[in-house]
Amino acid sequence: MTDAVRAGVDRHPERAAFVYLHEDGPLMRPEEISYAELDRRARAVAVRLRHGSLGDPARPVLLLYPPTLDFVTAFLGCFYAGRTAIPAPLPDEPGERLARVSGILRDAGVGAVLTLPEFRQPIGAWLTAAGVRDVACLSTGAADLAETDPGLWHPPAVRDDDVAFLQYSSGSTSEPKGVMVTHANLAANEEAIRTALRTPEGVVAGSWLPLYHDMGLIGMTLQPLWVGGTSVQMSPVAFIKQPHRWLRMIHDYRVEGTASPNFGYDLCLRRVTEEQSAGLDLSSLRVALNGAEPVRAGTLRAFAERFAGHGLRPEALVPSYGLAENTLLVSGSDPDEPPLELTVDAHALERDELRPARSDRAARTLVGCGRPKDTEVLVVDPVSLRVLPDGRVGEIWLRGPSVAAGYWNRPELTAETFRAATADGRAGFFRTGDLGALLDGELFVTGRIKEMLIQHGRNLYPQDIEQLVQESSEAFRRGGGAVFTVADAADRAHVVVVQELRDGVALDADLPRLAATVQALLSRQFQLAAASVVLVRPGVIRKTTSGKTQRTLMRRLFLDGALPVLHRRLQRPVADLLPDLGTAPEQAATAVPSAH
Prior knowledge:
By secondary structure, the protein is an alpha/beta fold. It folds into 3 domains: 2-241, Rossmann fold (3-Layer(aba) Sandwich), CATH 3.40.50; 340-449, Roll (Luciferase, domain 3), CATH 2.30.38.10; 453-587, ANL, C-terminal domain (GMP Synthetase, Chain A, domain 3). It contains 19 helices and 28 strands. The strands form 8 sheets. The protein has a 5-stranded mixed beta sheet. Strands 24-25-26-27-28 form a 5-stranded mixed beta sheet, with helices on both faces. A 4-stranded mixed beta sheet has the order 2-1-10-9, sandwiched between helices.
C-alpha cells in the first residue's frame, strides 16, 4: 500500500487523494489533501512514531481519531513506519464504545496511541486509569507534524506476512477479536476488488462509512489509493442526519463507486425528499455496493426505481458478500448486469434447500452476491463437515490469499476457525459462521448460524421475521427490529420479537393491539403460536458499525431487564426469566418520549 501511494506521488503529486466533507451548518465544507501532501504527512507520522514510542516497536499502534483526514494520514503513517495499525472508534462517550476500545487496548498489547492534540490529555488520563504505564500517547496535529522532519524517514523492511493492521470485530465488546490482516492479504484483496468491480485507474469513490470498519477502510479509503484515485468522505453522523448528502456527494464529485449496508439505501428511500433530490445526477455511478447485512431485493428494486429518473442505472447496484476475516470482499455481482434474484420455496429453505417457489406455498426472495473472486468457497454441513452440493444451505467456508492470518493472540481459536478441514480432507479453510448456498456458481447468503431460530425441526431466519413484522404496520420502524430465542428452565426455545416504533408514533397508540397483531401474524405466517413481543422507542435496537443488528447483545439486554420498554406481551415461561416483571406476563412500561 505504501508503494501504491508513493507511485501516485510520482505520477500525479497534485491530484487529490482525499476530500473530506465537514459539516458546516446545513452545508458541507470540503477539505482536500493531495498525494504529495499525504505522503509528506505520512512520513512525518512515521518519524514521530519512531522517535516517540516506548518499548517494543513490534507492539501495535492504536488510532483514536474522529473520521477525518487525520485518521487517514495516521493510518498510512503506521504503514510507512512498518508498524501494525489498529483503527478504532474514538472513545468520546461512555458506554459500549469506551468498553470496546478498552477491550481492544487490553487484547492487543498496544505499544502506542496516536490521536489529535485536543484528545491527547483525556486519552492519557484514560490510559492511566486503565493502569497502562508503558504506552506513549502521541498527537499528530498540524503543529506536531510541522515540527517533524519527514526527510528523516526511511522505508521500513516489511515482509509479505507481516501484520499490516488489526481489524477488530464490531460485535461483542467483552471479548474483542483482532483479525490479523497481513500486507499480502491486503494487496490480494485490493487487487480482487479492482478486478471484480473493474475499478478504473484514477477512480473517484465516495462514502460515509466508518473509517475503522472494513468496508469503509479497505473498500472506500484504500481501494482508490490502490489505483491512483480519489476518495471523498463524510462522517456517518452527517449521513444519518441528512441522507441526501450522500447522493449530493455523488452528484458533486462525479463519484463512480460507493458502498453501504442495505439500511443506508433504505434510509434514502424513506427520508430523501423530492425537493432534496431535484436536479440530482447519479449517472456517474458505476458501482454501488450493497453488503454487510442481508441484501433486500425489495430495497434494490425500490432504490433503482426511485432514482432512475436521476440517471441511476439498475446495474450499478451491486450486491456483495465480505467480512474482515477475508480482508473484505469475497464476492460481488457483475457491475454490468442487474442484481440476480432467486425466489425459492420458503418451506424448503427452512429445511436448508433452495427449491423453486410454488404458487400454493409461501416463498422467499434471495439476492445473489455474485461469484467468488480470488477466494475458494465451499458450502459445508457445520456438523458432519461434509461438503454440500449445489442448492443446499450450509456454512460458508473460505480459502485463498485474502483470508487473514488469524486472530491476534488467540492461537486456539485461530486453529479452530482458520485451519478447518472438511470430512474428505480438504484443509486450510476459514469457517465464517455464515449460512448460504451456491447455485450455478452464484453465492446466496441466507443468515448466521448462531442467530438461526430452530423451531420444531425448522430453520427460521430472524431477518425474515423482522421484515414481515416491520411491513405489517406503519407504526413500526424499518430496520428497527431484533428477533432471537431464549431458553426456559426446561431448555425449551421461545421466540422473542423486539420492535421499535417509528418516530412520531403517538405514545397513546394502541400498543396492546399492535403487539397482539404481531403475535397473530407470526402464528399465521411462520406457525409460531407463542412468540413474545416487546415494543420499544426508536434507537433501542443495537447495531454494529456496519449496520448489522446485534441480536446476541439484544438477547442479553432483554434477559437483564435493560431494555426501555414501551409495552411487552410475553409468554409465561419468558416472563419468568426476567428479573423485574413480577407476576403479570403482560405489562406496559411507562411510556418514554423518543430520543430523536
